[in-house]
Amino acid sequence: MLSLRVNGAEHRLEVEPRRLLADVLREDLGLTGTHLGCEQGACGACTVLLDGAAVRSCLLFAVQAEGAEVTTVEALAPGGGELHPLQEAFRDHHALQCGFCTPGMLLAALDLLARSPSPSADEVREELAGNLCRCTGYQRIIAAVLDGAARMNRSFSQGSASRG
Amino acid sequence: MKPAPFRYLRPASVAEAVDMLAGHGGEARPLAGGQSLVPLMNLRLARPAALVDINPLDELDDVRVDAEHLVIGALVRHRRLAADPLVARHAPLLAEAARWIGHGAIRTRGTLGGSLAHADPAAELPCAAAALDAELVLTGPAGVRVLPAAGFADGAYSTRLAGAELITAVRVPLAAGARPWGFAELARRHGDFALVLAAVTAGGEGAATAVLGGAGGVALRVEGPAAGLAARCRDACDPAGDVHATAEWRRAMVEVLVTRAVAGALRC
Fold first, then answer.
1. Is the pLDDT at B168 greater than 60, yes or no?
2. Which of A86, A158, B7, B198 is the most core-located residue (most Cβ within 10 A)?
């Protein structure tokens, strides 16, 4: 029996060792926001956070995630139609078209923003180089991450001010 | 595609991991970062009967300095290698090489020991380790032995690692880590495996060592005076041509990249 912690919720599952984390998230837990493109670590669509670090969920067996905190795109929006500031920036900058790569882009960007809250465009480019988009083009995605970072910094400072 | 079935084993110590590897008579593979092994399993190009997951072994995830060496645990991941203060101080060439590997979400998982054991002839870390005169500490059923990183790969994707042996650490001599160094790489896109790469360290009296990746089935090490090293590397290498680049182009790029890496080392 595997015990898996995803987006703050504990799950107990019976899974074969050969099942990839991406498949268990999608098929066993119904978290279909994690997309599978290539299944060989090349496209980045399946990127999730493992203890806060971006990883390819197609290159990790679900059993390996035992004891770690897995974060998927479903954890970003608080619900009720409200979006995460980074998702709002993606919407406002038209940084998605078909949306297949978007969950991976968001999580890879969040890993970067946790380490570098106000990154340069070059930093964003380098960090997202492992995430392929086949329709929108990258300029708008980079603009969205830079703006999303600014929005997150603003909402964080407003949050601190209101708490103070 | 999805991996074929395998037994998943989670050892509590290096000794137990070696026992598990030995118990499967060559049919078990250690699972470290999995960034090369798991794609091969997804494509069913690799079908190990068992995986020994060494990720939980904290004893392999340590960076420290002893009297003569920087000692880096086999499980240290590329992201840490690129950012660790001890690595930056005592083996900056390794830190630079780690930055060139794949993408962010690959570097969070991929490990130093895994890269050396996988022995891709175009991988960064085996070349950097060889240019630094690093040694690999191996633990097997018969105990511990130490092999030089240079020559550890005896062919493409093939090493001198015996069946049930595990790389547990990489030791960089402090004297070698302190040498001036340079690193240069050409790839088609950022994060791809190198078409050609060169790791160079400079010793005293105008001597230098270059280790070339992507220029043959194994990393090629060339030593001698820094002056003329690039041309000697070009003459010594025997790259294959493939869909990405011709042999002739690779040989020409070897000279360019060694020239750049030597210039980088001389600026140190």
1. yes
2. B198
Name the minimum distance, in Å, from the CA of B171 to any CA of chain A: 27
Distance CA A48, CA A19 (A): 16
Identify residues of A whose CB sits under 8 angstroms from chain B CBs: 16-20, 23, 39-41, 44, 47, 50, 53-56, 58-61, 63-64, 108, 111-112, 126-127, 129-131
| Nearest chain B residue to A50, by CA | B108
Q: Do A130 and B55 touch (CB under 8 A)?
A: no
The pLDDT value recorded for residue B43 is 96
pLDDT digits (tens, 9 = 90+) for B174-192: 999 999 999 999 998 888 8
Partnered with residue A144 across adjacent β-strands are: none
pLDDT value of position B35: 97
Are A56 and B2 within 8 A, CB to CB?
A: no
In chain A, residues with a C-beta closer than 8 Å to the C-beta of B109 are: 55-56, 59-60
- Whole-model pTM: value is 0.95
User: Each residue of A100-146: pLDDT tens digit?
Assistant: 999 999 999 999 999 999 999 999 999 999 999 999 889 999 999 99
- The three-class DSSP label of residue A54 is strand
Buried-exposed string A1-32: b where 16+ CB fall within 10 A, e elsewhere: ebebebbeeeeeeebebbbbbbbbbbebbebe
Segment (H or E) for B181 = strand B181-186
Q: Kindly report, residue by residue over A86-98, the tens digit of the pLDDT.
A: 999 999 999 999 9
The answer to whether the CB of A46 falls within 8 A of the CB of A58 is: yes
Question: How would residue A160 be classed by pLDDT, with cut points 50, 70 and 90?
Answer: low
Helix axes of A102-115 and A138-163: crossing angle, nearest 10 degrees: 50
Cβ contacts of B44 within 8 Å, gap of 6 or more: B1, B3, B4
Q: How far is A107 from chain B (nearest CA, A)?
A: 10
